[in-house]
Amino acid sequence: MASLRSQRWFGPCDVAGLMHRACLKSEGISQDALGNRPVVGICNPWSEVVNCNLHFRALAQSVKRGVLQAGGLPLEFPTIALGEYLMKPTTMLYRNLMAMDVEESIRAYPFDAVVLLAGCDKTIPAELMGAASAGTPAIMVTAGPAEAAVFRGRLLGAGTDLWRYTDDFRAGRITEQEYRELEAAMVPSTGHCNEMGTASTMSALVESLGMSLPGSAAVPAVNGQRYAMAEASGRHAVALANEGLRPSQILTAAAFDNAITVLMALGGSTNAVVHLLALAGRLGVDLRLQRFHEISARTPVLVNVRPSGDYLFEDFHRAGGVPALLWELRPLLSLDAISVTGMTLEHGILSGGTLNSDVIAKFDSPRERDGAIVVLRGSLAPEGAVMKRSAASPSLMRHRGPAVVFEDFEDLKRRFDDPDLVVDADSVLVLKNAGPKGGPGMPEWGQLPIPQKLLKKGVRDMVRVSDGRMSGTAFGTIVLHVAPEAAVGGPLAAARDGDPILLDVERGTIDIEIPADDLRRRLLAQPVPAPKYRRGYGALFLEHVMQAHDGCDFDFLRKRADEPFETEPLGVATGWIGGW
Question: ∠ at Cα 101 (99, 106), nearest 5°?
Answer without folding.
Answer: 95
